[in-house]
Write a structure and sequence with these properties.
Elements (H helix, E strand, L loop, with lengths): L2 E5 L1 E4 L3 H12 L4 E5 L5 H6 L1 H18 L19 H25 L3 E4 L2 E5 L2 E6 L2 E7 L15 H7 L1 E2 L9 E2 L10
């Protein structure tokens, strides 16, 4: 039997686009579900920006060490050339990726985002199915005002209202803009 998840926001893809959006929705009190077929972090974290920068960092260190071989440089001298262990470099790169992957998972958890592992297949605009490792999951997404959104928070109505431009009632250009700053957690 398949599990059914009803959610306000469905995010497909746990890359930098997806996980940031999901975390923010969760922080704003929306019931949020994120589906990721591979590992959290997407191309950037798992096989793109982060791994490539980690390996470039290794190459840079190695190149810098080579400059100290023989006559030396800056008063630092190496008797022989350093050895490059590709396996060791890849292992180190993986620890960086694992750490950041765990960080993304922790941030999603803290924002109360439900993470479903598997490939999302849309059946229509608001519904998708996922074959997760724990069995089939049906996800239905529909936005309803959640208790933590502006509508349900009268204490936020006044600052929200004051943040809008004060229009000139005669229909000309706005006369002035209120300088009320929104609380940090709105941004
Ligand atoms: C080698 C390399 C180096 C890079 N270096 C940089 C850099 O230095 N700086 C920079 O800004 N950018 C860099 N990029 C680009 C960067 O990785 C992307 O711009 C970024 O990852 C895009 O994020 P995204 O969330 O849109 O997509 P992605 O990161 O691709 O995430 C999409 C995710 O969605 C998942 N997904 C897709 N379809 C489904 C589905 N149906 N169900 C479930 N999950 C699904 C995928 O598994 C994936 O994890 C680099 C890319 C590469 C390849």
């Amino acid at each position: 039997m398949s599990e059914r998840i009803e959610t306000n926001v469905l995010v497909v893809g746990g890359g930098p686009g997806g996980y940031v959006a999901a975390i923010r929705c969760g922080q704003l009190g929306l019931k949020t579900t994120l589906v990721e077929a591979d590992r959290l972090g997407g191309t950037c974290l798992i096989r793109g920006c982060i791994p490539s920068k980690a390996m470039i960092h290794v190459a840079g260190k190695f190149e810098a060490m080579l400059q100290h071989v023989g006559a030396g440089k800056l008063g630092i001298r190496l008797d022989s050339a350093p050895l490059f262990d590709l396996g060791g470099a890849v292992d180190w790169k993986e620890t960086v990726v694992d750490k950041l992957n765990g960080g993304v998972a922790a941030l999603l958890k803290k924002a109360k985002v439900r993470v479903v592992q598997g490939q999302a297949v849309f059946t229509d605009a608001k519904n998708c199915s996922v074959q997760s490792s724990e069995g089939p999951v049906q996800i239905s997404a529909e936005f309803r005002s959640a208790p933590n959104t502006l509508f349900w928070r009268p204490d936020r109505w006044l600052p929200a209202f004051r943040a809008f431009p004060m229009a000139n009632m005669s229909g000309r250009q706005p006369k002035r803009y209120c300088s009320v700053r929104c609380p940090n957690d709105w941004r």
